[in-house]
Design goal:
It is a single chain. This protein is of the alpha/beta class. The chain is about 40% helix and about 15% strand. It is built from eleven helices and 14 strands. The chain has a five-stranded parallel β-sheet. Strands 7-8-11 form a three-stranded parallel β-sheet. It has a two-stranded antiparallel sheet with strand order 4-5. Helix 3 runs antiparallel to helix 4 and helix 4 runs parallel beside helix 5. The radius of gyration is 20 Å and the shape is globular.
């Protein structure tokens, strides 16, 4: 059974202390980063596969994940198809809606297929925050659009592409980070708008959850005084157990963003982990725990809290991945699929560039990976 903790490792080979960490029953997930991928190697993808094999030899049930949104948030480059920034889909949507949605589907499929072929279970995507004043979302072109309905439309096709390849999607950053200016990596932001205005940011989450497309939602470290004046969303029972579980009807895995971030600073690592768990996060992300921080984490592993309900949801997620998200499933889709056209908007004024990819276009209307 996967434990509640998501961790990372410091390089392309495992340190002895990292092996001890990975062997703990408290660890259920591992997030990969650029430091785990050597672009200068002769065959970096094979090296990545070997690292993942070593990790699974220690913790066979661990869920391997990575942030491969596209644009600037892209951990692996050489050997992988680079996806455009999220904002480019919104620009293309304004020019030709059908082409934009088709491209989102194809790109979601390609991204997921290439990761699955290396043994990565999940890409923590897509971002469904609105395009607003945010320094960490909009200024980095990570948002599809300012209109929540357009965001939901584009994200839905990207998710359906991921699902067709055999990968679950993760919506982030609940309940919406795009309209908040400050970056929760470096401070504790506050969004002082009324609940009426906050509903706009919630819409993409509500729409996609209602369509039964989502297995994971990632929470953020922003304070919304209109809802909970004391706690960031990831530490707020009002947001997670009330809004996300009851109002939005989400029944699957809730995952915190990285608890190392400044916005999560309510004390030392154990205090942060407990705050996230009590609020209702099933997965507690605590990555980049290197050096002394790794020693500290190893010393408190037995104290990290969990619940039977959270463990059950993580188990259901793992079972869905084990059952559905196989390389063989991807190969079958590619072998029997029809050609789909991906149209990429040129940034050099030379017009659209057409690319053909093998994709099974008979996408299920429901979510074939539902655990509800």
């Amino acid at each position: 059974m996967p434990g509640p903790l998501i961790v990372s490792v410091s390089g392309r080979t495992l340190l002895d202390k990292e092996k001890v960490l990975l062997a703990s029953e408290k660890v259920g997930g591992l997030a990969l980063f650029k430091e785990n991928y050597d672009e200068t190697a002769e065959n970096p993808k094979e090296d990545l596969k070997n690292l993942i094999r070593e990790i699974r030899s220690i913790n066979p049930g661990i869920i391997i994940m990575v942030d491969n949104e596209g644009g600037r948030v892209w951990r692996f480059t050489k050997g992988f198809t680079k996806l455009p920034e999220a904002k480019e889909y919104g620009i293309l949507y304004a020019q030709n809606k059908n082409v934009a949605l088709k491209k989102a589907f194809v790109d979601g499929f390609i991204m997921a297929r290439e990761l699955l072929e290396c043994g990565v279970d999940m890409s923590l995507a897509p971002v469904v925050d609105l395009d607003g004043p945010s320094n960490v979302i909009s200024k980095l072109s990570r948002a599809y659009h300012k209109d929540p309905h357009v965001v939901a439309e584009i994200a839905e096709q990207f998710i359906r592409g991921m699902n067709e390849a055999g990968m679950p999607a993760t919506l982030k950053h609940f309940p919406g980070h795009g309209s908040c200016v400050l970056d929760s990596h470096i401070t504790r932001p506050e969004d002082a708008r009324s609940m009426v205005l906050l509903q706009e940011d919630l819409l993409p989450f509500k729409i996609l959850i209602e369509k039964d497309l989502i297995l994971t939602v990632m929470t953020n470290f922003v304070v919304y005084p209109a809802v909970d004046p004391k706690n960031v969303a990831a530490f707020s029972e009002t947001w997670l157990k009330g809004c996300l579980r009851v109002e939005c009807g989400f029944k699957s895995v809730i995952m915190s963003d990285c608890l190392h971030m400044k916005g999560a600073d309510v004390g030392e690592n154990l205090a942060r982990l407990k705050a996230a768990q009590i609020a209702g996060n099933d997965f507690l992300m605590y990555t980049h725990q290197h050096g002394q921080d790794l020693d500290n984490l190893l010393s408190i592993l037995d104290q990290i809290p969990d619940t039977e309900e959270a463990a059950k949801r993580r188990m259901q997620l793992m079972a869905s991945i084990a059952r559905k998200f196989k390389i063989a499933h991807c190969a079958s889709n590619v072998a029997h699929g029809a050609k789909a056209t991906s149209v990429v908007t040129s940034t050099h004024g030379s017009g659209p560039v057409t690319e053909e990819h093998e994709v099974n276009d008979n996408t299920a209307q429901g979510n074939p990976y539902s655990i509800i």
